[in-house]
Design brief:
- β5 and β6 form a beta hairpin.
- It contains seven helices and eight strands; from the N terminus they run αααββαββαααββββ.
- The protein has 227 residues and is α+β, with helices and mostly antiparallel strands.
- It is globular and about 55 Å long.
- The protein has a domain of 157 residues: YjbQ-like (Jelly Rolls, Sandwich), CATH 2.60.120.460.
- The strands form two sheets. The chain has a five-stranded antiparallel β-sheet with strand order 1-8-3-5-6, with helices on one face.
Length: 227
């Protein structure tokens, strides 16, 4: 076939060239049902889909609760360590759920700082070391970040002593801000039967990225009161 025949609108000559190919394909197709992974009929495929959905529904667990709704907010304070450090705050969150007397609902956790993070994971010593090393690799503290050019930044207009006093106390911590954005600083956890719905090895963790500091974590419990 010429280039003109391939690019232009189909001509009689082109049709004559293509027609035998279609006929050959039709003739070479075996009669009867197809074999292999496409052998299922539409009816069989629909039945398989229904079976899979039934399995999913049968394995799921749902809880429906109604009654007076409770809202409780409290703050958890803790003193952190130097550099990057992880703290298990699960006990404090469980205590807030108990204090709210919520049987079914949600607890929302938020770090109230721009250089910390909140996550849910395993508090295992060697994993914690891995987290520290990963953070330092992802955002090296010595990188020339623009945020660290303190001399080019202005502080709040009402800062005592003006810009010079503000710059003197401002930390070099751009890497901590970036890590906080990457890791996130909130978590929402279901509450069922008066307890947190988390896995066996899961803990709610506050990640300090610029310690040591005094840190505050907000905990809000929302849900239906228990009997």
């Amino acid at each position: 076939m010429s280039a003109t025949c391939a690019m232009a609108a189909p001509s009689a000559a082109c049709s004559e060239l293509r027609a035998p190919r279609r006929a050959t394909c039709a003739a070479s197709r075996p009669a009867g049902p197809r074999n292999g992974r496409f052998a299922h009929s539409p009816t069989t495929r629909r039945a398989s889909s229904r079976h899979r959905m039934s399995d999913v529904r049968a394995s799921s667990e749902s809880v429906v609760a109604s009654g007076p709704t409770t809202f409780l907010y409290k703050q958890v304070e803790l003193e952190t360590k130097f550099g990057i450090a992880l703290f298990d705050i699960t006990p404090q969150i469980r205590e807030a759920v108990k204090e709210a007397a919520v049987a079914h609902g949600t607890v929302h956790v938020v770090s109230r700082h721009t250089t910390t993070a909140v996550t849910i994971n395993e508090m295992e010593d060697r994993l914690i070391d891995d987290v520290r090393q990963w953070c330092l690799k992802m955002a090296p503290p010595t990188h020339p970040y623009l945020h660290n050019d303190i001399h080019l930044r202005d502080g709040p207009p009402d800062w005592p002593g003006g810009n010079e006093a503000w710059r003197a106390q401002e930390p070099i911590n751009a890497h901590s801000h970036l890590l906080s954005m990457m890791l996130g600083n909130t978590a929402s956890i279901p509450v069922v039967g008066g307890d947190l719905v988390i896995g066996t090895w899961q803990s709610v963790i506050l990640v300090e990225l610029d310690g040591p500091r005094t840190r505050t974590v907000g905990v809000q419990v929302v849900g239906v009161e228990g009997a």
